Amino acid sequence: MPSSWVYMMANRWNSVLYTGVTSNLIQRVQEHKRKKYPSSFTARYNCDKLIWFEEHSDIRVAITREKQLKNWKREWKDALVVAMNSHWKDLSEEWELKGSAGTAARGRSDEDVQ
Questions:
Q1: Does residue 21 surpass a pLDDT of 50?
Q2: pTM for the full model?
Q3: pLDDT, tens digit, for every residue of 27-77?
Q4: Domains of the chain
Q5: Residue % of the chain over a pLDDT of 70
Q6: DSSP reduced 3-state for 4
Q7: Cα separations in angstroms, 45 against 1, 41, 55, 91
Q8: Is the dihedral of CA 68, 69, 74, 77 positive or negative?
């Protein structure tokens, strides 16, 4: 079954967050890092650090989750990030070293989303 991903990107200082959804997390993160869309929010605010993600088997659930997170308070998003990535490091750096997103820490499953 195809995977979908909800993810958060941050700028260097973790002062700006972006929440997105995609069916190809590796490709989408690379697009953010390369500023493929120069006028996009992530390009304008230099959000090129993957700080959090979770996998879903249904894109509709992922889109619902993305919308939910976009309505959350910043402190709730911060707590979600810290639960997966306490040091706010760029999780995609592991992919470059190990060559695959499959070796990175997994996010929560569909069943964990409320």
A1: yes
A2: 0.83
A3: 999 999 999 999 999 999 999 999 999 999 999 999 999 999 999 999 999
A4: 4-106 (3.40.1440.10)
A5: 82
A6: strand
A7: 34, 6, 25, 19
A8: positive
User: How large is the greatest C-alpha to C-alpha distance in the chain, in angstroms?
Assistant: 36
What's the confidence (pLDDT) of residue 2?
77
Closest CA to 107 of 59, 61, 56, 71: 56
Amino acid identity of residue 73, one-letter, is K
User: What is the rounded CA–CA span in Å between residue 13 and residue 111?
Assistant: 32
Residue 75 is encoded by which pair of tokens?
């402190």
Distance CA 73, CA 31 (A): 27
Q: Which residue, 23, 25, 18, is CA-closest to 4?
A: 23
**DSSP secondary structure letter of residue 105:** P
Q: Going edge to edge, which strands form the sheet with 49-56?
A: 17-22, 4-10, 49-56
